[in-house]
Amino acid sequence: MDVLDNPAPTVTQVRPWHPKWGARLGATYFVHKAFPWLGHYFGDTTLRSTLAPRLDGIVSWGGRLPAQTAMRIARLRKLPHWHLEDGFLRSVGLGKDGSIPISIVVDDKALPVDAGRASRLELLIRDAAGGLAHDVGAPIREALVAHKLSKYNNLPHSEPRLAPSTRRRILLVDQVFGDVSVEKALGAPSSFDRMLDDALASGAQIVVRTHPDVIAGHRKGYMTERASKLPGVTLMADKVSAAAILAVVDEVWTVSSQMGFDAILRGLPVRCYASPFYAGWGLTEDHVEDRAQLAHARRAIARPTLDQLTFAAFGLYPVYRHPKTWAMLEPLQAIDYLVEEIATTGRHA
Prior knowledge:
Blueprint: E1 25-27, H1 29-34, E2 48-49, E3 57-61, H2 65-77, E4 81-86, E5 103-107, H3 120-129, H4 134-146, E6 169-173, H5 180-184, H6 189-202, E7 205-209, H7 212-215, H8 224-228, E8 233-236, H9 242-246, E9 251-254, H10 258-265, E10 270-272, E11 285-286, H11 293-299, H12 306-316, E12 318-321, E13 328-329, H13 331-345
Helix pairs in contact: 3-12, 4-12
């Protein structure tokens, strides 16, 4: 596929909730330092300080302290504010290794992981459920699955080392303690305890996916320490891709991990113990605590198909740009680019 020659968005590509192309935008020092390429997404203009005069608005990245500071300044200055994050299809390498994302999301309502209020993504999923997005979403989903893609694509597709079993195999996804998405998705440490307790009572083969840093003792997980002391529970920290893991399990249980989204795309049953963006739409089995009931009631008015959800999350919500030319890309073009990069670098076995 040929990429667009003009890096500026066309009329059909403009998302009306985004800042205007070329707007004067402020950002914190953290954003300036961590994402020097970010201005290419807003008109090839230099992002300014949050305290600069005559700003058209302020952007922030993620949900930690710098983002909270940017939001407070925007409120004090009565300026529009936009939340920024990586798209759900990001790159081959990791961001901490300097890999530039092929997509970002820009949200004028909330972070996509925030179930406490309706994000722009939630509104797009609701609207897609009332339209005819199947034919557009299906090719995106099929390409992602066929090419074994996820948000990050740096790990090999080697088969995980698991003991054979005739029982149903359930994957429980642990997360690094303090993960912003857990609290934002209205989960808590107790959500992981309930998930593990339910799994123990199920009679299934239990596999806990944990982070290698947690196994090594560098980070803390929510349930790895407890799970490691339980007979019959397998801890899996193999450095293999999400696709490789999902190919050898029958079901996925999670609190707020994107692994659940990857599983849905591949047709696996998914149980959620909080409210990630893909939960509450009738596509997952939801076991949430009381404080998440409002979010699920809000989403219950729409029942998108899997392909409508795919279209909203990968088609309507993100902006894709070529990491070298900054030309805008369609979702299938972004997939092609990552597939070519993987083939060129030989990252996958």
